[in-house]
Design brief:
The chain folds into two domains: 343 residues, YVTN repeat-like/Quinoprotein amine dehydrogenase (Methylamine Dehydrogenase, Chain H), CATH 2.130.10; 28 residues. The strands form seven sheets. A five-stranded antiparallel β-sheet has the order 2-3-4-5-10. Helix content is 10%, strand content 48%.
């Protein structure tokens, strides 16, 4: 039996490193490129329109391509119409606007410093360019496309030096705080830098790790910052002061501390528990053996930071982690191109496609729980986007699991009991 195949949603003309979904507009934003090397591979940020076609199928339309010159975007964060992009050792902020032709009128004539592309040059991913009106109406009602042509404008706001590694500066992660008042960056120099947003005035910075920072995340109330480094440490900070160092291996006493290192961290909500919070971390083997050991997922209490559950998640090395808005699902990507979705409560695997991509899965993003996200999600319980170095963007959907109302279950149980009693009365007269 052959491997399960997931059709490509979109294929870019360059390697993809990051993907985000804007919760307000539903725009899918992907980015990557060939870097500064003169290979002819461009560097760009692509804005896609995602649509649900049928019950479980999706299509994506390229609305706009924003050229990023000689720098590839390696990581991104999106908040309130602003895109924070990690390019080499800098964090570049860009403002994007999504509107329709009839809304903007004659404003398109004044381009300024913005990069603009109208929907008349849109193309359907995987079907090539069709040109003219045919390209604009790759699917859907042509009259609607003529009346409301999609329009994206991107304007550069500012950029800051976010990594000061003297050898090879590289920003590895960027996050907005939940209330969009702060912007946090981490890079190869081991420093966390916290910037006020939107002024970009540096609030403070501190050395969080000896060596590269792999990941960071800020709790919803901005009380705690969690960082993951290549120095085997996962640290919880209050401001720039160390609050606690997490020790996942204490839940597995036979595990040596230096056998594994932390790879990613994410805070997540708890469904139906408003005040509860969870932290999820991924641990990968520090060294690979001929018989590869498993990677591990750990769930922590997001306030006391005590481990709640640790579970193996396969022998393929994990390369990316995502958490759904509701905190119900976890997404994992691997260096071999596989994609999986886990249930956050039990850390059980719900969905898995082996080598869905041809190479490293670089980023994942669940469709948001906003109204726009729910409309795109359709009849699926959840849907997650993945990108990889193979230039492909895919969508992984989990159909709603069938469930029965409790009254129907109780009614059936009652019928069974009555049936058993009648059968016993028939076989043994006078039983009752």
């Amino acid at each position: 039996m052959g491997k399960r195949r997931v059709p490509d949603l979109y294929r870019a003309p360059f390697p993809l490193y990051s993907i985000k979904v804007d919760s307000k507009t539903g725009l899918v934003i992907t980015a990557g490129g060939g870097g500064a090397s003169k290979t002819g591979i461009k560097n760009a940020v692509h804005f896609l329109d995602l649509q649900l076609v049928g019950e479980h199928q999706y299509s994506a339309t390229l609305l706009h391509s924003h050229d990023t010159d000689t720098r590839a975007t390696m990581n991104m964060a999106v908040g309130d119409g602003v895109l924070a992009a990690g390019q080499d050792g800098t964090c570049c902020l860009m403002k994007f606007q999504h509107s329709a032709e009839k809304e903007r009128g004659k404003a398109a004539a004044k381009d300024g410093k913005s990069s603009v592309q109208q929907g008349s040059t849109r193309r359907r991913a995987g079907k090539g360019d069709k040109g003219g009106q045919d390209g604009a109406a790759a699917s859907g009602d042509k009259s609607e496309l003529k009346d409301e042509t999609a329009h994206i404008s991107v304007t550069g706001l500012a950029e800051v030096q976010s990594d000061l590694n003297p050898k090879d500066p590289l920003q590895k992660v960027v996050r907005f705080s939940p209330d969009l008042s702060l912007l946090l960056t981490g890079g190869t120099d081991g420093y966390v830098r916290v910037w006020e947003f939107p002024s970009l005035k540096k609030k403070f910075d501190f050395r969080a790790h000896e060596g590269e920072i792999e990941d960071l995340d800020l709790s919803p109330g901005k009380k705690h910052l969690v960082t993951v480094g290549r120095d085997f440490a996962c640290s919880v900070w209050s401001g720039d002061q160390l609050a606690v160092s997490l020790k996942w291996n204490e839940t597995l006493p036979q595990m040596d501390e230096k056998t594994y290192r932390y790879m990613a961290c994410r805070f997540g909500k708890v469904e139906d528990q408003k005040d509860a919070l969870r932290l999820y971390t991924v641990q990968i083997p520090h060294k690979r053996d001929r018989r590869p050991p498993p990677c591990y997922l750990t769930k922590w209490d997001g306030k006391s930071f005590l481990p709640m559950l640790t579970a193996p998640c396969g022998t393929e090395v994990i390369s990316s982690l995502a958490v759904s808005d509701s905190g119900t699902f976890l997404g994992l990507g691997t260096v071999t191109g596989s994609v999986a979705i886990y249930i956050a409560f039990s850390l059980q695997k719900l969905y898995y496609v082996q080598e869905s991509h041809g190479i490293v899965v670089t980023d994942l993003a669940f469709l948001p729980d906003s109204l726009r996200g729910r409309n795109i999600k359709g009849n699926n319980e959840t849907a997650m986007l993945s990108v990889a170095v193979d230039s492909r963007c895919q969508v992984h959907a989990v159909s709603n699991r069938r469930s029965f109302p409790i009254w129907l279950v109780l009614f059936c149980c009652g019928l069974i009991v009555v049936g058993v009693v009648l059968l016993l009365q028939y076989l043994f007269p006078g039983f009752i």
